[in-house]
Known about the structure:
Layout (H helix, E strand, L loop, with lengths): L9 E2 L2 E4 L4 E6 L14 E7 L9 E2 L1 E6 L4 E6 L1 H4 L13 E10 L5 E12 L6
Parallel strand pairs: 1-9, 2-9
Antiparallel strand pairs: 3-7, 4-5, 4-8, 6-7, 8-9
Amino acid sequence: xxxxxxxxxxxxxxxxxxxxxxxxxxxxxxxxxxxxxxxxxxxxxxxxxxxxxxxxxxxxxxxxxxxxxxxxxxxxxxxxxxxxxxxxxxxxxxxxxxxxxxxxxxxxxxxxxxxxxxxxxxxxxxx
Length: 127
């Protein structure tokens, strides 16, 4: 009998501007796309240079928008994104970081919902 592996989390890449507020929403659903009530769930979204790097570059705040529809919003604040180290000579030279979104349900089960790359466009006015 073959063993069933854990499902792979969704992948999505974002591009943000250094010094901007950036928000995105995630809807938590079952495998058949039925929304899960996320009342009482906890979430974490962190950005690192690589998955192996220890320092957290950026952490989003989260807000459960509609718990019964499984909708949670993540917010990277402008004062935090302005501190991201970039080395591009203009706005088109992006730095690449990695991120993920983790949920902890009411029973304490932890699941990675989303992961990908966060590309950061350097800002001119923040230096």
